[in-house]
Amino acid sequence: MGYNTVTQLVDTGSDQPLEVRLEAAATEIGQVVVTGVSQATELRRSPVPTTVVDHTRLNQTAASNLIDAIAHTPGVTQITTGAAISKPVVRGLGFNRVITLNNGAKQEGQQWGDEHGIEIDEFSVDRAEIIKGPGSLLYGSDAMAGVINFVAPDPVDEGRITGVATASYQTNNSQQGYSFQNAGNLNGFNWLARGTRKVAGAYQNRYDGRVYNSGFNEWDANGYVGVNKSWGYSHLTFSSFNQRVGLTEGARDSATGIFLKDIADGPNTRAVLVNDQELRSYALDVPQQQINHLRVGLDNNLILGDNGARLTLQGSYQQNLRREYGNALDPAETSLYFQLRTLDYSLRYFLPERNGWHLTLGGSGLHQQNRNLGVEFLIPAYRINEGGAFAVAKKTIGALDLSGGLRYDLRRITADALYLDADERPTASTTPDAETKFAGFASTFRNYSGSVGAAYSLNETLTVKGNLARGFRAPNIAELGSNGIHEGTIRYEIGQSNLKAETSLQADAGVSYVSDHVRFSVDAFTNTIDNYIFTRRLLTPAGTDSLSAEGDGVFRFEQGRARLLGGEVSLDFHPHPLDWLHFENSFSMVRAQQLNRPEAERYLPFIPADRLQSELRANFRRQGKRLTNPYARVQLEHNFAQNRFFSAFDTETATPGYTLIHAGLGTDLANAAGKTLCSLFITANNLFDVGYQSHLSRLKYADFNNANGRRGVFNQGRNVSVRLVVPLSFK
């Protein structure tokens, strides 16, 4: 990987030593993708649009969370709620339309929520593989927009015991991160264990100063223990993600613009100014979230004979606890408290190659139960049972690579009825004057997914590819059964239990040119979604806005038809003879509309603006005896104005364009023998402290600030990150 291929004729009868010396490649053309395919495939020969973010790039990126670390990938953006909460958006679609995998297994949390992040330790990830569009058939419903697989490090070599100590600090919000990993492999018995601690205070920008209650703290542990033998491997895996996150409301004093917080004043609350000490503290106030995600699983890979056949079996138990605290009179009261428990499995049989065909058969499924344990109720308690079967095939005919497959899924969701008494506490249906909060329902969704694609290498440098895929997504529990105030969207939401499953048809086409000094690629797509689920504001019989008892607008989930199109263009130069110099450029865009809707509802919400990125990077192999692999980079990120927005019901507003400059440098430090002692990475994001709001920032719609005439809370200002990685060897 990362070196040019050597082709050489060898006389096996000469009985002479053979030495092959590889030269470093100027372009990064050798990446391999393993997610969603029947066998490991060279990235540029995969018909399905896929991007890989490797470990080096993750280390060189200053990020406050895992999604933030990959959000500069062309075609990938993020919906954010401050520094801690990020949700991935792939080609304009997010939430339940993107599947997140933790080392190949589905991550099951409360994916439907705007303010619900990804519960994965950023230090546990070796690389990320991103499938754009419904091209993966191995994972079933919800992969309509794509799949993001966060891959753990490979087992260490036989006879080795190693470790990695990592420490990071970010200046903007005083974010500290510490992680220690130990891994070993002794006679096939291997293990990996990691512990992580992260803590951050309030972030700051030039217009808001320090943003009150935007900090977070996190404790994580993860790893595996198992055996690797000639017959394959079996690993017992575990992960525990534990985080507390402050939720910024953005209320400010009208005269000074200073943030306000609510405190108890007898039986009532009153708003007071936040002082400077509170802004600089790591302490969190209400509202806040507490998230605990536990996963224990088995990962097995069995080699069946010498013909290449193998069987993989994954199974796990997950528990996701999400508590939301919002009562200043009783900060310990859990307003919302979801307990989500999931048993999931997947079985895959990789058949031996026959006549160039690689075929994979398999199935997956889960049983899931969600309970309400808080004092407020937004969604009903429910159970999901689902299963699916698939077949995926790949064949190479000379320069032509063909791949495709078919999948069928069945999902049944059963929601419990809930009745409330006069004090809004659960009661029996027979209680006099009992209010029906949730009527209860049972819905069944069955559908199929499929894809077919081809990549053809016209010569060693030029490849063309195309893919046609059909995906589907069953409605989530909020869309089917919600009945309450959704604090994340600041509105009263009503679900409909008779919603149909979304289905999509996406066509992709691409061309890539890769030479020793130039890399150019174009990927375009069009995606049509039937039964697209969206929210529509309810009106009174008089035609005025319908309001809840608390004064919030009332919205109901409905369905329509949507169309998205766009793509990504990348152009990288490595000018000869300066192969150490990289000039990398990318442009990504999405156009998304609802068909047959009024003008104000024409565009889909949460669609990212067009984005242009240019990076000039210098990579040096060695400088003297002590510095190895030094690099320096500067990046321009321009986000164009987003004037195509969902303006109905005051949902979104236009967002002006902005330009950010990022920079970074780093190196490995070695001893006299050439052994790496540590790696140092220094990164500066938003180097010139530009005040900006991302179109996908939910804090953009916080309260108006009379002191500076601007609405909402702005994104993070200048942030300098320092990361130190120390490899350890115990054997």
From TrEMBL:
GO terms for cellular component: cell outer membrane. Residues 43-147 form the TonB-dependent receptor plug domain. Its main location: membrane. It is a multi-pass membrane protein. The keyword Calcium does not apply. GO terms for biological process: siderophore transmembrane transport. GO terms for molecular function: siderophore uptake transmembrane transporter activity. This is Energy transducer TonB.
